[in-house]
Design brief:
alpha/beta, D-Maltodextrin-Binding Protein, domain 2, five-stranded mixed β-sheet, 10 strands, Twin-arginine translocation pathway signal protein, signal, SsuA/THI5
Length: 353
């Protein structure tokens, strides 16, 4: 999709105002009945959502919504467009080459981003799903962060979540950042080779690679934010991630599109609550398994607690992010300006999530 000009945005607005959108039946029981025929499009414009590479699990609900036609059932033609990192994804939205993006809530609070007036409207996760593991081979007697002084710690490059997990762990045990050697890892493959080859003493990275190393007995988990309890231990509360966000102008101008996007994501979150291995194998693209279905499925099972049940901003989440954020702590009113639960509350009621 090229840049969207004023005429294209106008066409989208007209579609929102006049399209004969259909209301899906209220959910009954565990699953929501899928319509026999898909509803007419809510808007003629294809909605582009900018995302990071979907190898990890933070955007699995989005993938489910795409693969099971939940977006289409809401009358939307949605493209999940992958970008190399969050910076490029955000730039695409700012240039109107995409309409929305998935981002950790912490990113919306960064000083350079706050002035852009972004708003999260549905939340996929409440835990970063990042693991800090220490090598059994090079640090066999690991006891705590103090043992990492002078050590080489691999960090997933351009990943603010991984950086925050590492920094929170070091700060909690009063180890300064400059006391460890932080080595950015540009790819999961390079990180894996470096860790196994002894060039890294510890690694802070997302799954499914960390589950693979753990199951093969190659690392000791020092920090585990794949669960709500592990996240709370490090950050003092849940950490909202995978926040479907857009400039506040888009949310205000296109509330029906925003609601339809939210409904599809909440539908996917509800589906994931009861999805078994066979359901996932049938739904998730084969490329996401990276050649090892067993590890991927084990990772999903470990991470079930990391997703929200209803798409709402988790209580205490913005405050937890604020405590470990960059610069001065923000006042409550400033935190509230960057998210809304209005759309997720409607979806929660509709799907009984």
């Amino acid at each position: 999709m090229g840049l969207l000009n004023r005429r294209q945005w106008g066409a989208a607005a007209a579609g929102l105002m006049f399209a004969a959108g259909q209301q899906s039946a209220t959910a009954q029981g565990v699953t929501v009945p899928r319509p026999a025929t898909l509803p007419p499009k809510l808007v003629g414009t294809r909605i582009v959502i900018a995302v990071e590479p979907r190898i990890g699990l933070s955007n699995l609900p989005l993938t489910v919504a795409e693969q099971r036609n939940f977006f289409r059932e809401e009358g939307l033609d949605v493209e999940l467009r992958e970008f190399a990192d969050l910076g490029q994804a955000m730039a695409a939205v700012q240039a109107k080459a995409a309409h929305a993006m998935c981002v950790p809530f912490a990113q919306l609070l960064a000083p350079a981003v706050r002035a852009m007036n972004w708003q999260s409207f549905v939340v996929q996760g409440r835990a970063p799903q990042v693991v800090l593991g220490v090598s059994h081979k090079t640090v066999p007697g690991f006891r705590g962060a103090g043992d990492l002084r002078g050590r080489r710690v691999g960090l997933r490059a351009k990943d603010p979540l991984a950086q925050r997990v590492l920094m929170a762990f070091l700060q909690r045990e009063q180890v300064k950042e400059e006391e460890v050697q932080i080595l950015p890892q540009t790819s999961a493959g390079a990180a894996l080779l470096a860790f196994r080859g002894g060039q890294l003493d510890a690694l802070c990275h997302a799954d499914p690679m960390m589950t693979l190393l753990e199951q093969q007995g190659e690392l000791r988990v020092a920090v585990d934010t794949r669960s709500l309890s592990g996240t709370t231990e490090v950050f003092g509360g849940p950490v909202p991630v995978g926040c479907l966000s857009a400039p506040a102008e888009f949310v205000e101008q296109f509330p029906r599109v925003t609601q339809a996007l939210t409904d599809a994501v909440v539908h996917a979150l509800k589906w994931l609550q009861t999805a078994g291995p066979s359901d996932l194998i049938k739904t998730v693209p084969e490329s996401h398994f990276q050649g090892d279905r067993a590890i991927y499925l084990a990772t999903v099972e470990r991470s079930r607690d990391a997703w929200t049940a209803d798409g709402l901003m988790p209580r205490g989440g913005p405050e937890a992010v604020n405590r470990v954020g960059e610069g001065a702590t923000l006042p409550p009113a400033e935190l509230a300006r960057h998210f809304t639960n209005a759309f997720a509350l409607k979806a929660k009621a509709r799907f009984r999530a």
